[in-house]
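FYI - complex with S-adenosylmethionine, inputs then prediction.
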Amino acid sequence: MNVEQAVALHYAHGSLEETIMDALAAAGKDPGRLTPRDLAPVDEFHVGGRLATVAFAEQFGPRPGMRLLDIGCGLGGAARYFAQEHGCLVTGIDLSPEYVNVTNALAARVGLDERVSCELGSALALPFEPESFDGAYMFHVGMNIENKSKLFAEVRRVLPPSGMFGIYDVMRLAAGDLSFPVPWASGPESSFVADAASYRRLLEAAGFEVLKERNRRDFALEVFAQMRARAGGAGPGPLGLHLVMGANAAQKIKNMIGDISAGLIAPTELICRAA
Ligand SMILES: C[S@@+](CC[C@H](N)C(=O)[O-])C[C@H]1O[C@@H](n2cnc3c(N)ncnc32)[C@H](O)[C@@H]1O
C-alpha cells in the first residue's frame, strides 16, 4: 500500500453522511433547513474548528468572487465557510472518495452547490490548468504529505503571480517521537510533521514569499480547555469530530493534545504570496 492509499484508508468511514445526518437530527436540527453553521461542529476537521477557520480568514483576506482551491478539503467545512461568509467560489480536492461525496452532498443540503464543489485527486498532481485559481489554502493536510516541495510546486502552478496561499497545519516544534494514533494518521508511516522553518524554505524554493507565521499553540490549548469544561466529565455531545474519527477518536485526540502540551507539535499558520 502506498502512502496515499494508507491516508485514504485512515480517513475511511463507510457511512459518514448518514452518521452526520442522524447526529444532526439527534441535536434537534431540521434536515430540510440546515445551515453551514449547523454543520461546523462536525465538518471542520482541524484544531479549533470553525474558530480557527475564522481566525485564519482574518489573516488570509478572502474577497467576494475569489476562486479558491481548498487542498485536502475533507468534509468541506472551510470551503462552505468561505463560500457562505465571504462569497468565494471554492473548489476542493481530496484523496478520500467518501469525503468528496460528503462535501458535495453537504454543500447541496445547505444550498451552496453552485459555489462549492469537490473533486477526487491528489495534492501532488492537481488536476487543474496553470493559474486556475486566485488563491489556495490547506488546513491540516501537510502532515500527510512527505514531498512538500512537490506539493508547493503544484500549488504555485495553479496560482497566478501575487496569488495568496494560506496554510494551517500541525507543525513540529521539537524533536521526539509522537504518540499514535493521531487524528491525521494511524501510525508514523503516513505522518510527516515538519517544522515551520522547513515549510518556509520549501515554500520559498517553490516561488512563494512567506508574509506571516503564527504559532497557534496557546489558542489550541485554550480550545481544548474549553472543550473539557463544556463536557464537564460527560462524553462528547451528539455532534462532533468523534463522528468522523471513528471508534478510537478519544485516543487520537488525547495523543495529539499530549504532544501539543509537551511542546513537540503545534498548529501553525503561514500566509504566503506567489512571487
Ligand atoms: C485532517 S483532514 C483535514 C480536512 C480539512 N482540510 C479540514 O480542515 O476540515 C486531512 C485531509 O487531507 C486529505 N489529504 C491528505 N493527503 C492528501 C493528498 N496527498 N491529496 C489530497 N488530499 C489529501 C485527507 O484525505 C483528509 O481529508
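The longest strand covers residues 265-274. The CA atoms of residues 82 and 250 lie 29 Å apart.
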